[in-house]
Amino acid sequence: MTTTTLSTALAAAREEDRAALIGSLPAGFPDVASSIRVIEAMVEGGCDVIEVGLPYSDPMMDGPTIQRAADRALAAGTTTDDVFRVVEATAATGAAAVVMSYWNPIERYGVGRFAEGLAKAGGAGVITPDLIPEEADEWIAASDAAGLDRIFLVAPSSTDRRLALTTATCTGFVYAASLMGVTGTRVQVADTAETLVRRTREVTRASALPVCVGLGISTGAQAAEVAGYADGVIVGAGFCQRVLDAPDLETGLIAVRSFAEELAAGVRSRG
To answer: What digits encode the pLDDT tens for the residues 108-165?
Structure first.
């Protein structure tokens, strides 16, 4: 695999002895142009990587906040080509851009066509939460051909065999879901997260593949806690909530930038 902007961003954070901050937002929320401005605010606040969500009508892993944001994006008419526009704008900020998408939209768009379009837009890879390695031959071939990282999920319920199989197919990083549930803000990070990262690292020791944690991280203190044992901290619902709560976009941008700054300080403090 070629070195992607994602692997470069994660390596740069490691060299600074900190975890990377990965911010997530659905493309097209609240509309395409505004989502680009929100992402720019996230990067200005300190996000190293942006996970650009492809809005989908049946998001099994997303909690109510991200579902509301994705519904707004769909209502605004956001298409897969619009997602590539947002990726291109994200890459222009200097942050690494990855797409988070369920498999159905990729398959409907055309697997090879999707990979080529994302690479052309400057995307580094794709997180596929509902695709498992045993059913990913077409995606593995397409992502290899396009030079994209492929990121699969592991969970607290994953067996040692499943961890080994999944991580062997990942490039870029492994997405460690901190709990069995959906995205959203929580009072504390699930205590299963650190154990999952440790177990995952046991099977990625040879490759030194980064392990990034998502689901349920919503404060700088929680980001610092996770940064103490993970290579990256993934936050999405908190950004969406600040846009949803704002009376207008400009107010939302200020809140988003401030939240990113709080999280960025957290990943640098390693609680």
So the answer is: 999 999 999 999 999 999 999 999 999 999 999 999 999 999 999 999 999 999 999 9
3-state helix, strand and coil shares in percent for the chain, rounded to the nearest 5: 50, 15, 35
Residue from 40, 48, 62, 149 carrying the catalytic annotation:
62
Question: Amino acid identity, residue 119?
Answer: A
Closest CA relative to residue 38, chosen from 256, 248, 236, 218: 256
What is the distance between the alpha carbons of residues 180 and 72, in angstroms, rounded to a whole number? 26
Q: Tell me the sheet residues that pair with 97.
A: 50
110/254 Cα distance (integer angstroms): 38
Residue 62 appears among annotated catalytic residues: yes
Q: What does the H/E/C string look like for 154-173?
A: ECCCCCHHHHHHHHHHCCCC
The reply to whether 225 belongs to the active site is: no
Fold classification of 5-147+217-269 (topology level): TIM Barrel (3.20.20)
* pLDDT tens for each residue of 157-179: 999 999 999 999 999 999 999 75
* Mode of pairing for the β-strands spanning 125-127 and 96-100: parallel
Out of 51-65, 89-103, 138-152, 231-245, least confident range: 51-65
The active-site residue out of 51, 82, 149, 231 is 51
